[in-house]
UniProtKB/TrEMBL annotation:
<keyword id="KW-0808">Transferase</keyword>
<dbReference type="InterPro" id="IPR000600">
    <property type="entry name" value="ROK"/>
</dbReference>
<dbReference type="Pfam" id="PF00480">
    <property type="entry name" value="ROK"/>
</dbReference>
<dbReference type="GO" id="GO:0016301">
    <property type="term" value="F:kinase activity"/>
</dbReference>
<dbReference type="InterPro" id="IPR036388">
    <property type="entry name" value="WH-like_DNA-bd_sf"/>
</dbReference>
<feature type="domain" description="HTH marR-type">
    <location>
        <begin position="2"/>
        <end position="48"/>
    </location>
</feature>
<dbReference type="InterPro" id="IPR036390">
    <property type="entry name" value="WH_DNA-bd_sf"/>
</dbReference>
<protein>
    <submittedName>
        <fullName>NBD/HSP70 family sugar kinase</fullName>
    </submittedName>
</protein>
<dbReference type="InterPro" id="IPR043129">
    <property type="entry name" value="ATPase_NBD"/>
</dbReference>
<keyword id="KW-0418">Kinase</keyword>
<dbReference type="InterPro" id="IPR000835">
    <property type="entry name" value="HTH_MarR-typ"/>
</dbReference>
<comment type="similarity">
    <text>Belongs to the ROK (NagC/XylR) family.</text>
</comment>
<dbReference type="Pfam" id="PF12802">
    <property type="entry name" value="MarR_2"/>
</dbReference>
Amino acid sequence: MLTTSHRQLLRVISESGPLSRTEMAVALGLSKAAMSGLARDLIDLGVLHEAGTVYGQGRPSTRLDLQPEWAFFAGISLIQDPAPMILCDLGGKVIARIDMPLSRDPQTIAQSIAERLPELFKVHPQAAAKIGGIGIALSGFVDERQATCIQSTLLNWQGVPLADIVREHTGINAFIENDAKAIAVHEKLFGSTRDQQNFTVVSLGDGIGCAHVIDGRLYRGNHGGAGEIAHCTIELGGAPCRCGKRGCLDTIASMNAIKEMARVEGFACTTLSDIEQIAATGNAAAIKILHRAGSALGLAIANLIQINDPGLILITHTEDGLQGLFGTVMQQAIETNVLPRYAGQTPIRLHRVSDDIWARGAASIAAHNFLIGPNTN
Ligand SMILES: [Zn+2]
């Protein structure tokens, strides 16, 4: 069993990568002798392993890192159809992927997961024995225990205790999370923002998601809805949104919205790159669509910067084409809508991701709970 001290050490390593015993002792404020004891426990348990020697000034030191095969995690995305289902190791590496049919019925979802787990586990002889949890990402609001979906328009759910239902069907600890929040936890735990304490993720896919990590923790807000920029009103009295309001960012700048506007204009295109190509020929309608979408997204991000002053905005996108007009206008709108003293001060990082990003995020939610405990203060 892991003690509180063990978990504190795992948190430090998961946040910073491999560390020497001396570095860990400094990070935790412990004596070298106490740290050696803790590290020995975790090596004996198979949680940590020696990951190479560092030569610098003084004696060479051995760095310790998480043993990737100590535990495995399943992640499922309910925002895609079919729903991707992946298996990750403790290093966040995807080692298997299958698909399952999407359903809106919680019992059917749990049953599908339980039926398909053996196929997922086939990839590694110890995967079934070392499964540390199941994570599920969905579109909607999730309670702070990461157990109940408070509300989801896409799934038509209110108060669905999906984590408990999945646990009953599989016998494995399960956690659920909002799709963008799952990506933020993934990026903090395994991704490109491990060293960032304050950042915001904006996920651009069919819809727009957003999540904040503040002081190293996911910030949920009072009702689990922090970061819902998709439904910020950007155009007063604008087009109706699926949420019931009008003029939401999602109706202007999501990939679905951009493609729908292109379809209405009669363009035969299926990707953002297609529309960028049409705009590059000088087509006024295509230019207008991309300009309007980029301006709206940039304005929303500028407001995020004004409100939270994050150290980084990480824009994850599942489509190519962010280097074109849409992305350029977005960057300009960010710069022109923040206070001059903020202009250019917040790095905007574009991160092209594959369509398993939400399933990976889901697995990261399970890994986070397993390693560190619930993502609450
Ligand atoms: Zn809306």
